[in-house]
Amino acid sequence: MGMRGGGWFRYMRGRDMSAKPNVSRRLLRRVFGYAKPYRRPIAALLGTIVLTTGLGLLNPLIFREIIDSALPQKDVARLSALAFALVLIPIASGIIRVAQRKLNGTIGEGVIFDLRVALYRHLQQMSLRFFTNTKTGELMSRLNNDVVGAQNAISNTIVSIITNVITVVATLAVMLSLEWRLTALGVLVLPLFIVVARRLGERLQKIARDQMGYNAQMNAMMNETLNISGALLVKLFGRIDAEVEHFEQRAADVRDTGIRRAVVGSQFFVLIGLVSVTGTALAYWVGGLLVIQGSFSIGDIVAFVAYLTQLYTTLQALTNAPVDFAQSIVSFERVFEIIDLPLEIAEKPQARHLQAVAGALDFDNVSFRYSIDESQLLSAVERIGRMDNVAATRSGGTRADNGAARPSPGHQARELALSHVSFHIAPGQLVALVGPSGAGKTTLTYLIPRLYDPTSGTIRLDGHDLRALTLRTMAENIGMVTQETYLFHDSIRTNLLYAKPGASQAEIEEAAKAAHIHDFICGLTQGYDAIVGERGYRLSGGEKQRIAIARVILKDPRILVLDEATSHLDSQSEALIQDALSQIMRGRTSIVIAHRLSTILAADQILVLDRGTIVERGSHSELLAAGGVYADLYHTQYSRQTDLA
């Protein structure tokens, strides 16, 4: 009947109109635009729908012939032929439906494949600013839930609507040809459907919304406590029993609302059934009178009631169709919203690709602001009737911001992260960035590979504005080792090959040896095929960082940008990493957020940042003699290091 699961009664007129999905003509044109490459399969699909609908209308007519002709006339041959037809029709319908399902799958899966790839490609091209201001869960919801919703629109909802519309029209046509007065009588009971819906609409809408909220709270709790970090926190604080009790409360709320929804939903189906029975009873009563009067045959009334039952069933499905269609199409809107987001880091059509890079870098009056352009963020559009609307909190809150992005200041407490920064780095030079926490050092390094574009000013590579170069130029020639090392949940080999997919085993081992991690890898049972775990969780901080260094060595970039953070490492790992870094920096242009005095002393130039500006620059001795910010940092941080000369 197309209403199982309670989808129909959530959206009746008694519900909150603010939850009504909005489907525009422009959105529909765009949705159907994705179907253009599949015009031939669509035409064939429509043909199969017409065929199956036509075959479905034959059974009542066959029953009529059996009752009115074959049996009264004791025509065995005709009875046998009609009985054989009753078997043949479902066989033929089944064969056609298999072909119909294949066509439907080809169209639906093809459209969704195109949509999913377009969405993922666009997300990969978004700037780092977008990801720092968008919840990962929201992106996953768009890629999974919304794409599945869009798939449902193509594969199920639209096909179901077309099938039901054709069935209603064809059934009414046959019924009118049989007896127009009975047809009018059967249609007159249809307003009772609306009356039933209004009676139960408000109650069911409230129950459905409560269930969505409780489900979201339960899912949020599972998401928080069933990942590595959450599970570790629960165990360390001995909160297993408390969390189980907390989960029981959430699950109990879901259970109770589910029971209430099932009871009220069953009431709905009982009432709808009574409406259908009323229409059928009227048809039998009036049709029986016509039979008694001799203007209607018994076979006619049997066929007519069969058509009437089919009409009611189809109309019930169509009653739910507008809402199902609107919800499914709104999933397209959610996906299109991401595809339509402007690319902040866009490559110009005539961008130049540098085959050979010397490594000269120039910052010319560069400023950067972590301001948020709302047009580049996801909206807080509510998903009608979906259980991921509500962002539950551990304090038991029921509604939050629907998972939409909200502006945040990025990496800094200050919105203005860099202000009028200018410096020059010659090819092969080592530049050390020093300064207090929050001075803008990380932000500056993120501008070099164009993870962000400066708000004002220009950054040049070998005299070329970065915005005039291809993104591939930066990707091929700039390597970064960040403080937070990220490894995929895969083998060590796969993580290393991410830098150079075609690298040989010899190249991989050479890079690992340079990073002082080869011996450790060989000591593992599976060697380079060992799985590192979620975010490299199976490895220590020093091991992860050395694998990250080996990955950059394998890439062999002309320019190296790295955060030399070693405070969380033991002395042995720190020494190995320092030696590995000294090897990788040799002969390359290197920009280092320096934490070690040895790196600072080896630097060709030291840039001292404070509150987003370069306050001092020069060599170690020059800056120490100046007695400014660098001298203060030296006396509080660097002078205690064991490698002080």
Protein topology:
Layout: H1 25-33, H2 39-56, H3 58-70, H4 76-125, H5 128-132, H6 136-178, H7 180-188, H8 191-225, H9 228-236, H10 240-293, H11 298-339, E1 361-369, E2 416-425, E3 430-434, H12 441-447, E4 456-461, E5 464-465, H13 471-477, E6 478-481, H14 492-497, H15 505-514, H16 518-522, H17 541-555, E7 559-563, H18 571-585, E8 589-593, H19 597-602, E9 605-610, E10 613-618, H20 620-626, H21 629-636
Parallel strand pairs: 3-8, 3-9, 6-7, 7-8
Antiparallel strand pairs: 1-2, 1-4, 4-5, 9-10
Helix pairs in contact: 2-4, 2-6, 3-4, 3-11, 4-6, 4-11, 6-7, 6-11, 7-10, 8-10, 10-11, 15-17, 17-18
Q: Unreliable runs, pLDDT <50, ≥5 residues? A: 1-20, 381-393, 397-413
Q: In angstroms, what separates the terminal alpha carbons?
A: 84 Å
Q: What is the level-2 CATH architecture name of the domain at 361-372 and 407-640?
A: 3-Layer(aba) Sandwich
Quickly name the level 1 CATH class of the domain at 361-372 and 407-640. Answer: Alpha Beta
**Number of E-type strands:** 10
The Cα radius of gyration reads: 35 Å
Task: Return the average pLDDT rounded to an integer.
Answer: 80
CATH homologous superfamily heading of the domain at 361-372 and 407-640: P-loop containing nucleotide triphosphate hydrolases
Q: Biggest sheet, in brief?
A: 6 strands, mixed
Given the structure, what is the number of helices? 21
Report the oligomer: single chain
